[in-house]
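User: Fold this, then the next.

Assistant: Folding the first:
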Amino acid sequence: MQDMPDPSADLSLHEGYRLKVAPSPSRLRAIFNGETIADSADVLVMRETNYPPVYYFPRKDVAMHLLVPTDQRSHCPFKGNANYWTLRVADREVENIAWSYEDPFDEATLVKDHIALYWDKMDEWLIDEQPMPAPVRSNQQSTNPLVPWLVDQAWRAQTAPELLAILAEALRNAEFPLWRARIMIQTLNPLLFARGYTWQQDIDGIVEFQATHAGVDRPQYQDSPFAAIIRGEGGIRRRLEGDTARLDYPILEELITEGATDYVAMPMRFTDGQINILVLVSNQPDGFSTEQLGHLYQILPNLSRLLEAHAQRSSARSLLQTYLGQGAGDMVMEGHVKRGDAEELEAIILMSDLRDSTSLAEMLPKDDYLAALNDYFDCVAGAVIANGGDVLKYIGDAVLAIFPIEHDATGCSSAFDRALAALQDANQRMDEVNVARQTRANAPPLRFGTGVHSGHLTFGNVGTQGRLDFTVIGSGVNQAARLASLCKTLGETVIISKAVADHAAVSVKSLGHHELRGIRERQELFTLS
């Protein structure tokens, strides 16, 4: 029985990370469920540092009629993007058992139009019609300078931008000719599709960029390598030197004008399958070597897990702030998660609701009513957020918001100014919305009523042990709600308590004294002038 040449014979330790492809001197045959799947005397053997040899069969010598293409893709920064097939023979099927590099990078061009099979998923392998021993991993291991960094330093990063910064430093220390490094991570955020961070050799610090959901429909994104990778088309490697450079994305031409010589964009998959991206750009002659990309490729799964941990924390904070509000979201992230966890604070409370909502719901089609409700929320809640307030919750067609009071050394607080500015802003927004509604569809105008009061509150968790809500509790909330209800009776859009009006920097006018349910003495109330 002949044997394959020693898989590690020409991959010496002192050579570092290497990839070599050479013809096999023997005929190989792979069998599954009694069928010959591949049989060839023209097999190519790929030997890669740290891995067992892989055998590539010419496509003409493979039973392609038994292979079904799948959506699986993988990427190697120096071999290219691999497509996969599922094997079906009679009553047996194995998913993604075969792969091929349809458009391999320079280092792997010899295996174009060849198919490889997972050794351990086949039933039998024969070499010159004799049983073939399983290929073994080379004993020659490359010394990867990035492994010590991964073990000793990478985990110390507190955020994704910090991790990118120390990764760039580690790559430079390992003599990577790195000019720019960038990561893009998809987010769970109603406004943002992804967040990105860029390190560049000649720029201090990490530069953050954001991709909105609207932005991903624009040509600038759709014509970028990012869009192709997110779609699952694998990674992208473009050498940018010489007249034959493949410039199939506009960004590549821009990079050339800046002196770039090599562009590598690699997909990074999180455990849930989400695709994210790591980009390396060089401006040195010849760009990145196979050895350098091989070292990075080895640590990429571990690097992805670290980035996933940072991304999950960022997404958790974003979702909590989206659904609970800024203050409540931060408190939950800080560990205030048990029933009864609470803090005392002084705040201005806004309670606002949409007027005539019942008649609007009966009059308008469902989609039109929901659009009207969101228009109202954009006006009132949008104004609160724009002026530094915290929207705690939406209660049907109502908004509960606060402006926490933090007194400065003089005993004054900007919270009062910001709260009343938010009311003026909300009125202006509503006027603009109603003009648009009238112009667009002759729709009925929207009106709202808002009560504003200030006082001491308890801010924390209430509910059952397994289903909690983060909210504010206190007489101030009840009084703000009663002021909002009184808006309808008095025909006012905004009613302000004396506790707030006494601190008003904007002009207010008195509405006289009125009774509030549950309060013995009549209260002087105010509105915006």
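Now the next one, as you asked:
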Amino acid sequence: MLPTRRRLLTAATAAAIAVTTLPMAPGLIGPTVAQAAEGGTVTWAFLRRPQSLDPNIWSGGSDLGVMRQMYDTLIWSPAPGEFQPGLATSWTASDDGLVYTFELRDDVTFHDGTPFNAEAVKFMFERIKNPDSKSLNIGAIGPFESATVVDEFTVEIRLSEPWGAFLTNVSEPHLSPTSPAAVAELGEDFAQNPVGTGPFMFDRWSGNDLYMVRNPDYNWGPEMAGVEGPAALDGIVVKEVPEASTRMNALRSGEVDVIHFPVMSQVSQMEQGGFQVFRLPQPGFSWSLPVNVTKSPTDDLRVRRAMLHAVNNEQIVRTILFDQVPPAYGPLTAVTFGYDPAVKDSFSYDPELAGQLLDEAGWVLPEGGTVREKDGQPLQIKMAMFESSVNKAVSELAQAMLQQVGFDVTLNVANYPAFATQVAEADYHTAQMRWSAVDPDQVIPTMFNSNQITGGGQFNRTRIADPELDELIRQAGAVTDTKERAALYSQIQAKAMENVWIIPVYDDVWFFLAKPEVQNFIVDRQGRPMLYAATLAQ
């Protein structure tokens, strides 16, 4: 039975969520907002069928947005450093920061009817750590050492060293408990048949469209959502619509209620036409072009600096992204904890300086030529890119800018598996990277630690292997004092730009567009919708 009373957002929760969302501006054309009704189904036009709905194994950012509807976390975080009870009612940390004890709710069941308890939490941590799982979220558990069941609803998590990001990571969907019984029964098929504890339950696939239904027994929603009891919506349909223009038309025609990944040039027009536009700045690693420091000619710092000065990120933002996102200036986006604004002074667009640096490095432009040469060899570099959203257009414009200063640039835009193979074989000079995460310790080690050069996702695409840098990254992750952490991450950002390990392009912003009838559209700290709170106007 649906609740007869739904709490309004508390002032604190509303403030925490409002910092990342921009609701529909007043006075826009659209139906008068009516009283919200119980029931109804929200149809969400999505880029593609989710590759996996197993939060403990898969790390795809967009797919995790879908998973947010079906899973809960032990704790929730409405703002940096703030935490609220979730599946855990309380938690404590030992004085040395090595042991966290979670007291769990005793009234929660998974969607398959099996109980949620301390064994399920232990199972989750150990499953992620198990090499046989091939989890892409091994970094999400950091220095996890062991999990101990104290009693049915108490679990201890032991770390091998203190970790400042631990509670933040526990609040993220990667660490959402999954049904141990369902994982054992379904094996690899669990990824397409998810079983969590969340407000919506997996119902079925229809082609590549995902159907979810309301969990009628749900009564443990997060305080930050501002509602109680089961969700108001009857269900959610995540509809695969690969083409951005088709998604926009589907929203205009009323075929769908919410879309993600819009046509950027049409966002302002849609907003003026009465549709809600939610702009959600992403914390984490900026959309950048990491530069392979081990491969000639980009093993020469002067060549990398030339590339940095040759790429006009502000023009890319204007031309490709219609000024809907901010330019990037360093590894971390401006809304990420620990971001150092001093990186803004680390470079500027200066093609003349780029040319001087290449001259100093011995790469000269022959009379009448367009490609620089050194010892009879052309200045050739390879750019690796995967086809998704605006990636192709951005990389093509960056390619043209590099060519203007004398580079011969080969751009290979491929599907993600082919792109990943090229990265694994180190057959590139730049290979695009971006990563949304609410704590720098979720991205900095992944992007710059030497243990990420081979194996796993090979996300250290700079291929920098520096023991001193590894130690600095370790220290930044282990410190729990926020000021000290920020100072250490500032050092890492400065090193990244001094050595031009990356070419920053823009700070990612997620866009959701919705019909005016969709009310109480709230998001978590990373901009993932929490449709548990949503309603549809009558």
